[in-house]
Amino acid sequence: MTTHPFQLHGLPALSRSTVQRDELLRKDDRRLDELWRTGQVVLVDRQGRTPVRDGATGLATRPTATVADERPADAVLLGLDGDTSYWAVTAEEPMREGLIAPPGNSWGMATGGVSQAGEEWHDLRAVGDLLDDTAAGLFTTASGLTNWHGRARHCAKCGAAVLPVAAGWATHCTGCGREEYPRTDPAVICLVHDGAGVDGENVLLARQPIWPPHRYSVLAGFVETGESLEACVEREIAEEVGVPVSGIRYLGSQPWPFPRSIMIAFAAVADPDHPLVPADGEIEQARWYSRARVREAVAAGGQLPDLILPGPTSIAHQMLTAWAAA
Ligand SMILES: [Zn+2]
């Protein structure tokens, strides 16, 4: 008999990281210029893809000298691994025609490309769980920062163009001098169970109308301004499926840079006899699944004919796997 509530099994895929962040270094231009000469570059294209190697366990980084002799103004310092500096640069490489499926099981929605040099390029959602700890952290940070720079080219206050500063960790407005920092939008994600015993015997899953058929996941939503995380969990679940929850408990978090979120995970309890009222247009269907059914889906690699679980890069996958094993 389990007496402790379930926890995530280790760090979520995109919460892994090994390089050192160094805020002071970002303002030391002389040192940055030196570090550039011996560094490695993570190229990210406008679709958020990077070249991978060794079955997508590592990133095919480039020596900085092959990218530029001097540190480019838009190069972002990701961090240091010993004496090696890692940088992100947005770049396009010629691709062959056609898209390819990523290695592993990534939910069947992400596709990659093959460069004319024969390298596979994949996005973070597709390969995040396959990458080693160093590569996962580098690509996650690179995705978030390149997304931000690609979408925030003008000052939010005066509308003038902005320029990257602090090794890509801030922008400076050319009009009013305002500084802006990379933005992260918090979102909650909650595994709702029926409260039987310690961890419940049934879990509430739902699907959005735009998802592939049979795909279900736990409920999630963005935190609103002026709202606590716990209040957001209560509100989102009430809005999405019309059910009140209690016993909200923190599980963990992971960055989700698509384009700029962090997912903050919780468990909560709801009455399985309470009527489910899916939100119009947002939730196509919501229903309770038994632990045995979810275990069966996990054992089948996340896919049964009528139940497809979230892909292994997502924290939702970690939550459901941990709950099913409890
Ligand atoms: Zn401005």
Automatic annotation (TrEMBL):
Gene3D superfamilies: 3.90.79.20, Nucleoside Triphosphate Pyrophosphohydrolase (3.90.79.10). GO terms for molecular function: metal ion binding; NADH pyrophosphatase activity. The keyword Magnesium applies. Its cofactor is Zn(2+); Mg(2+). Its EC number is 3.6.1.22. InterPro entries: NAD-cap_RNA_hydrolase_NudC (IPR050241), NADH_PPase-like_N (IPR015375), NudC-like_C (IPR049734), NUDIX_hydrolase-like_dom_sf (IPR015797), NUDIX_hydrolase_CS (IPR020084), NUDIX_hydrolase_dom (IPR000086), Znr_NADH_PPase (IPR015376). It catalyses: a 5'-end NAD(+)-phospho-ribonucleoside in mRNA + H2O = a 5'-end phospho-adenosine-phospho-ribonucleoside in mRNA + beta-nicotinamide D-ribonucleotide + 2 H(+). One of its GO terms (cellular component) is cytosol. Residues 182-311 form the Nudix hydrolase domain. This is NAD(+) diphosphatase. It comes from Actinokineospora bangkokensis. The lineage of its organism: Bacteria, Bacillati, Actinomycetota, Actinomycetes, Pseudonocardiales.
